[in-house]
């Protein structure tokens, strides 16, 4: 019996968990997600920060501390800007930003990287990266092609007003495993600064 329990404890971390952005730093748990999404959602993410979104709505529904609008569960898994504001990135249009994904367990499907307006929950402009299919194939992290785990995106032109303040926009990595029917989301906080005038003039 004891052996069985020990074996299960060893297995659990390998069964759970899937992926997140490790660089630049993505939204972690903190006091703001507890306040807005409730302690049940926070605990689920804290125990496995790479896990999928499905399952969280059910936990949230059972938690009287859950505030649907403020939590915004389907954006960034409800992870909050206030818990990541010290990691705000400052970018300028045209800047190439390297992204690293920790893809702990693959589930083949589609994925994209986009900028989302956090007030309207709408993607701003075109996707920065799209894998229509064939994202994260295989059974273990090393089966996944390197360019699906490390790639770069270019900061689009024209975001200097919409994304002037950190928290107004996020860079979101979104992955859906078709067979597993699981969604993964991870968000980087940033603001877009105006280019120095002499650079803008030369461009
Ligand atoms: Cu899975």
TrEMBL record:
Its cofactor is Cu(2+). The keyword Signal applies. One of its GO terms (molecular function) is metal ion binding. Residues 18-190 form the Chitin-binding type-4 domain. It comes from Ophiobolus disseminans. PANTHER family: BINDING PROTEIN, PUTATIVE (AFU_ORTHOLOGUE AFUA_1G14430)-RELATED (PTHR36575), CHITIN-BINDING TYPE-4 DOMAIN-CONTAINING PROTEIN-RELATED (PTHR36575:SF2). Pfam families: LPMO_10. The lineage of its organism: Eukaryota, Fungi, Dikarya, Ascomycota, Pezizomycotina. Belongs to the polysaccharide monooxygenase AA13 family. The keyword Transferase does not apply. This is Chitin-binding type-4 domain-containing protein. Keywords: Copper, Disulfide bond, Glycoprotein, Metal-binding, Signal. Residues 1-17 form the signal peptide. It comes from the Eukaryota.
């Amino acid at each position: 019996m004891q052996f069985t329990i020990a074996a299960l404890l060893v297995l659990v971390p390998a069964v759970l968990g899937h992926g997140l952005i490790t660089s630049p730093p993505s939204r972690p748990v903190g006091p703001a997600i507890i306040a807005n999404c409730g302690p049940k959602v926070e605990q689920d993410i804290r125990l496995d920060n790479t896990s999928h979104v499905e399952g969280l709505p059910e936990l949230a529904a059972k938690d009287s501390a859950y505030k649907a609008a403020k939590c915004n569960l389907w954006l960034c898994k409800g992870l909050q800007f206030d818990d990541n504001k010290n990691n705000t990135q400052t970018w300028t249009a045209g800047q190439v930003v390297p992204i690293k994904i920790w893809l702990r367990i693959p589930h083949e499907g589609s994925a994209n990287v986009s900028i989302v307006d956090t007030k309207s929950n709408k993607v701003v402009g075109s996707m920065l990266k799209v894998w229509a299919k064939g994202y994260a194939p295989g059974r273990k992290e090393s089966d996944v092609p390197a360019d699906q785990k490390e790639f770069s995106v270019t900061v689009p032109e024209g975001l200097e007003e919409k994304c002037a303040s950190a928290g107004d926009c996020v860079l979101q990595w979104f992955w859906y495993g078709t067979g597993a029917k699981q969604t993964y989301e991870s968000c980087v906080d940033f603001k877009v600064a105006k280019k120095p005038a002499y650079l803008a003039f030369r461009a």
